[in-house]
Amino acid sequence: MSSSTSSEIVVEAKNLGKAFQLYAHRNDWLKQVLLGWWKAYFKPFWVLRDISLEVKKGESIGILGRNGCGKSTLLQVICGMTLPSHGELRVNGRIAPVLALGSTFDMELSGRENVLIGGAVLGLKRSEVLRKFDSIAEFAGIGEYMDQPVKHYSMGMRTRLAFSICAHVEAEILVVDEALSVGDAAFQRKCLDWIDNFRKTGTLLFVSHSMAEVRRLCTRAIWIEEGRIREQGDPNDVIRSYHRALLVEKDDVQRFSSGNAKQAAAGE
Amino acid sequence: MPSVKVVNGKQIVVENLGPIERLVSFVSKPFVRMWHHRDLIAAILRREVRERFKGSIAGWIWAIIAPLLAIGVYTFAFTTTLSLPVSDGTDGKQVSYSLFIFSGIIVFNFFSEMAFRAPMLLHEYTHFIKQTIFPSDMLPVISTLRATAYTLISGAVMLIFQFAMTGSLPWTVLLLPFIFIPFMAFLIGMSWFLAALGAFTRDAGYLMITIVPLFMFATPVFYSHAQLPEPFNFWIYANALTGFVEVMRDVVLFGKLPNMIVYGWTLLISVFSFYFGYWFFDRYRNVIVDVL
């Protein structure tokens, strides 16, 4: 690979795997911490396996998959919140994670104070947040509520405010996880317009259950199943085969446990 | 430009450093990170200070009333009922017993607030740690700074009382930062260690609730090390808090320079605690995200 093409790759993952440590007994973690160098006291539970992925600058990737397939974990690994257990990952650029919007808000504090904290957590200087404050308030469009404690906000209002903060970070890579499902249609459209605009300059990783959004925003789609990439390519093709599979595979109660059993049987 | 490179679960440090450079980077790392995240530290600290008195009307007044009330009660109790003038053991200078124990209690309360809170610290901030790119190693720094604010209020109340009772303050009070800042470093290091431990198990919190009150009597809060019999007046320094309490009393109450061996010992404890705590936290921080 020549240096000119590799500099355009912003996210590069090779055989990425993520295992959570499952302990048979509640206190086995202590043995693991003390004696982990000698033997393993846990069973690895692989939520991501063998993910190889290259995202070029300016691409928009839509990630599809059923609940619990590992989509969110993949985003968390890419954002660097949790380390992969296996494989290589390289990320170049400032990431703005738009995950679980509003979950970090302090309910007792006002929207205004939460904007200051939220901006700082996303890596903005205090002066930057203050400068952008009016713009953040305008985008959120919650008016007088800005000075009320967040506990009086509706889910939709929290989402509006949280998304608005993220939209002002000036990131190079935007990672969005099912963020917009609570907002009303008008706000969703506003956010999608904003993301659409962001795509002109930045790279987008986008998880959504709305196929219309994926079709509209993404240049490539990736379908993840049981922690592996099942299919990737043109969004229309991937969505078609994903839908076909959803029709065949009913929402099986055993789905989560059977995946586990399969892993145990495979002896991993 | 922040870039992440990870191979087989280990973060790869890009620089290739020699042993001296590695030592320098280890020593400077906590400070570099504090400086880098200064705006975040300030923002969270502001939230923490507000949170402490959330829903209260009097707010900060509570932080002033509590130490005022405490020293008032001690003064009343120890001047009217029993009178125990305390000397520092060498030159026989006498100070009021109420100021004597109040100074010990201020130092001890600072320690106990950190010891109680640190094991739960990462649990309080789970959302931040799991949902955002959050420097969790700054949380013990922030909580220590918050506790510092309340300690300084108590300290100011004490100095005002001391001035009112004795009519003057010794010049050695000016030396207080030289012992107070190492004490903060000691507590930040302790919080790093306890926070990491507490993320794995709630037992760390219960352990602290059990042993910290006992520590109050194993530390010279109500007595001076000079009042202890022969072997104990040496071994009491094995309790890391002893040196800090004694040195702070020397400069504030007795108005004299501390014993340099004791002072050196407290500095040694501070540096060890700070770097051991950071090393421990840094080592387990990536595991902690998954166990929270």
TrEMBL record, chain A:
GO molecular function, one term: ATP binding
Domain ABC transporter: 11-251
Stored InterPro entries: AAA+_ATPase, ABC_transporter-like_ATP-bd, ABC_transpr_TagH-like, Bact_Polysacc_Export_ATP-bd, P-loop_NTPase
PROSITE patterns: ABC_TRANSPORTER_2 (PS50893)
Pfam families: ABC_tran
Keywords linked to the UniProt accession: ATP-binding, Nucleotide-binding, Transport
Similarity-based family: Belongs to the ABC transporter superfamily.
Protein name, UniProt field: ABC transporter ATP-binding protein
TrEMBL record, chain B:
Organism superkingdom: Bacteria
UniProt entry tagged with the keyword Transport: yes
Pfam families documented for this protein: ABC2_membrane (PF01061)
Record-annotated membrane-spanning stretches: 57-77, 97-116, 147-165, 171-194, 206-226, 260-281
Family matches, as InterPro entries: ABC2_TM (IPR013525), ABC2_TM_bact-type (IPR047817)
Taxonomic lineage from the root: Bacteria, Pseudomonadati, Pseudomonadota, Alphaproteobacteria, Hyphomicrobiales
Domain ABC transmembrane type-2: 58-284
Protein's name in the database: Transport permease protein
Keywords from the named record: Cell membrane, Membrane, Polysaccharide transport, Sugar transport, Transmembrane, Transmembrane helix, Transport
Similarity comment: family membership: Belongs to the ABC-2 integral membrane protein family.
Membrane-related topology note: Multi-pass membrane protein
